[in-house]
Fold this protein.
Amino acid sequence: MYAVIRTGGKQYRVAEGDVVRIEKISGDIGAEVSFTEVLLLGGSESPKVGQPTVVGAKVVGKVLAQDKHRRVLHFRKEKEGWTRRRGHRQSYTEVKVTSISG
């Protein structure tokens, strides 16, 4: 069984046992989180598509890590002779999906 969930303005296709990196959410390492914005449930039966979400569906996961991605550099150079280098590290939460119900 798999599900499509929406969190952090993005959509993720998850199945039981998957480890996904999502936009940062609050929660300590080892805490249980639930996602109620389930857009689609699929698997052995015919898929259930929500309008916009599937009523009563829920995905439960466990927080494995709160970390930051690798640094992304932005370099800008102008004709006049000046340069600028900036970086950014996006925060993420690593979640292991434990159950899908619907």
